[in-house]
Amino acid sequence: MSEELSFSRDYFIEMDVRSDEAYQLASEWFDEVVFTKKLVLESSPDWGALREELKALRGAYGKVALLLVTKKPSLIREVKNRSPKALIYVQGGDMRVNRAALEAGVDALISPWLGRKDPGFDHILAGIAAKNGVAVGFSLSPLLRVSPYERVQLLLFMAKTWQLVRKYDVPRFITSSAEGRWEVRGPRDLMSLGINLGMEIPEARASLNFHPRSLLLRL
Amino acid sequence: MSEELSFSRDYFIEMDVRSDEAYQLASEWFDEVVFTKKLVLESSPDWGALREELKALRGAYGKVALLLVTKKPSLIREVKNRSPKALIYVQGGDMRVNRAALEAGVDALISPWLGRKDPGFDHILAGIAAKNGVAVGFSLSPLLRVSPYERVQLLLFMAKTWQLVRKYDVPRFITSSAEGRWEVRGPRDLMSLGINLGMEIPEARASLNFHPRSLLLRL
Amino acid sequence: MKEKPKYLPPTLRDKYRYIAFQVIGERAFTGEEIKRAIWEASLSTLGFLGSAKAKPWFIKFDEKSQTGIVRVDREHVEELRFALALVTQVNGSRAIFRTLGVSGTIKRLKGKFLAQYGWR
Amino acid sequence: MKEKPKYLPPTLRDKYRYIAFQVIGERAFTGEEIKRAIWEASLSTLGFLGSAKAKPWFIKFDEKSQTGIVRVDREHVEELRFALALVTQVNGSRAIFRTLGVSGTIKRLKGKFLAQYGWR
After folding, report:
1. What's the CATH code, domain C15-117?
2. Chain D residues within an 8 Å CB radius of B5
């Protein structure tokens, strides 16, 4: 019972939704929602335009994150050094990108296992993440889009990464990473993802509360 | 390791196979196999012919059981009183038949849940079974023939019955109840059925060794 | 003579939890559709063996508010919640399951999590 | 720069068991067919969540003797054994899986349970 009582009094943050409709629905279910602007980069962005866009997004949504999707480690460092007024996330999956994101000290590396045949994360990277305070983002939405066989693989990689995140005390959060409204899930349902990856209930809660709050303090 | 060592040295009995081809295959994998003659009864059988048939089956297979499939409790008592030289099993499923079999003190009641929407077994019946030394037979083969949804139901009823069997210390065995060759399974694989119903490994082993042996002593 | 088994003694009775949920869909769903969706979610997430252990059981669905109750073995609440979180469609139409709360009795569940949807 | 993650520290490595099995079929099966059948058995019995916990992994199948090795998380040996016991067909042809034995290493498994089938 105490679990459910504290649940209703709890404070939950959704760290990564990627469209307006997802933001609107998530706002009904979470206390705070971070709107993510996805930026696919092959070369340096137009910084003037990007700054303007981020300013507009901050006006509309308050808290904003910039999600870099790139193959080029140098672009991660460039964006980090420009320090736009947004959290900086990096879409994981490429091993060199995973490492560069952690070394550059961005705010979060999202799904380092995405599109891989391994977790894309190991104890060396876990050590760097912990040292540089880079959070690992555990996203639900990739699970929604794939076959049962691929769900097994994703869950294996996520559970393995969680073991390392726990052992090295790496910051982390659980998020829908919803691209649209239909991928949004409630906070308690996102917690169940963490619990099924091996988290204790308080660890899963911290992944939607304490850790997100700590990251938001950087803004 | 010790588990597997004792496994290879163990002695296993298959209590219920229902055709020659099933008997032949089971004989390769078990130390003893009981051949079951299925008898669908709507009225009294021709006792002379049945005695002859059982005699021939004993000659061919050694240990023989007679499986009564009937809706009539009176026929169960009649067969029991005639005490043919065979183990007497009753096919469960009808609640009155389940009870009559236990009260008549036959050797085993097979799958009391078969075709039902409940386990067909309760603490009252468990008490009668324990008092009269009637074994409950847990058959694998019905699981092989049904949809996933029905498998869930069967497993629920079997697990519930196992709880009662354990609590009331009712004799029991695990069997394939194979009608044909393709429904035969090895002893260690039948044990896994018991374990997934909630048995400890020694309890599952006893269901293919100690309990069958005790029943065979009655022959 | 009894045609049904008697109730089990208390020590052997299953311990359940009741989960209140809301369905957000691109259209309204019927109770039958939701019942089926819960079964499919359980079978694909937990398999028939895991479902036999979790014992999910559809209790009720209010079509007006699109909220309902499902029962589950108390050791498997989080597994069923996860199974529901991974639902993306019900009978071909897009849908989201959102759990509202969990309780040991239907009465408390209604009072705490479903009263606001018109349940009593 | 590494393109693959490093091996995990020993405390985080999964603990596995290896199961030796024999397939009795109405025809001989290929390793590919058996691999697929094991996956299907695991998904239908344990679901994708149970399969992620049991981590079944096809190791090898000798088509001549129709015997093989599958790896599984050591806490889930009996679940996989049961999943295999419920297999009735492989790629449309009737089949029985029979487990021959379990061991913590492939070497011991071969020596104790597969040597008699010509493995070395």
Report:
1. 3.30.70.3250
2. none
